[in-house]
Amino acid sequence: MSRRNFLKQSLAGVAGLSLPSVFGATAARAEGFPEKPIRVVVPFKPGGRTDAVARLLAETIQEKALLPQPMVIVNADGGAGSNGVQQMKRGGDDGYTIMHWSHQMLIAEAMQIASFGMDDFRSIGFTGGGSPVWCVREDSPFETLEDLVTELKANPQSLIEAVGIGSVPHFVGAMLANAAGFETRLVTANSGADRLRLLLGGSADIALFAAQEYMAQGEGLRPLVYFGEERLSQLPDLPTATELGYDVTWSNPNWWLAPAGTPDEAVAAIGAALEEAMKDPAILEYFEGNTLAPYWTGSEDSEAQSREMLARLKDVAATIQ
After folding, report:
1. What does the alpha-carbon distance between residue 116 and residue 308 come to, in Å, rounded to a whole number?
2. Mean of the per-residue pLDDT values for the chain?
3. Domain shared by 122 and 42, yes or no
4. Nearest Cα to 160, choosing from 195, 140, 178, 185?
5. CA 67 to CA 33: how far, in whole Å?
6. Residue 1 covered by a domain
């Protein structure tokens, strides 16, 4: 099935979905915020990367007394993130209810399948992030990305790609296909486990995995390209897409968001605590062990980077709808 037809059929199932960090913790406290616990809404079930990072940072902030009140993680999965957004909105815009998400939110906006978008939020910042790898089976005849691109250009749609509609694998694959000038056939796979099962079982030829997913699998897969801005230290021989001549990167950040009307002092206080927490050795060790890049990007820069990515994703959406 082509990308265009795949999308048309799949949309029926989802159509109903609806300040600067230089201030330290001491300066933030002088503003009187926070005076009660901060609820952090995570739009997923417990246990995934987004949830784990939120909990780890919240624990570090409390242990190091980087804020005078704790951050309490609240899981609100379902509705492609809309359940979490609605819960955040019900908490008001005083800074006491925020979200921890990723650029998956931008995909929902680009596809126009959600009742929310960037204008509903203000960015607090990024606490690191991770990039995926595009894989074939270990016994695949394709040794390099160029081998695969050459095949797909000579025989369009001859290879099957496992994706979930409106997912990161869907859009990253489409970004690469547009940049390289090829087209795959698509088969539905709504989770990493589904993609792995289809790929190893021979029902798909290509699939995208988080770098940590690939490394945890250990065998049966051959990565062809990494979508980070630089090579991953744990996979030093794997080239990036940009190295191979394709302007495609996906460094999915751990994104901290507040409602659009949240006061500057609340954004600054939370941002200062997160920035300081990212320096903790235990945090750095966790990120390294889970193939995540540890960094801090403040409110203004993370907002600008996200809007730039949104524009790129809208361009991609226009090619697959």
Report:
1. 18
2. 90
3. yes
4. 185
5. 9
6. no
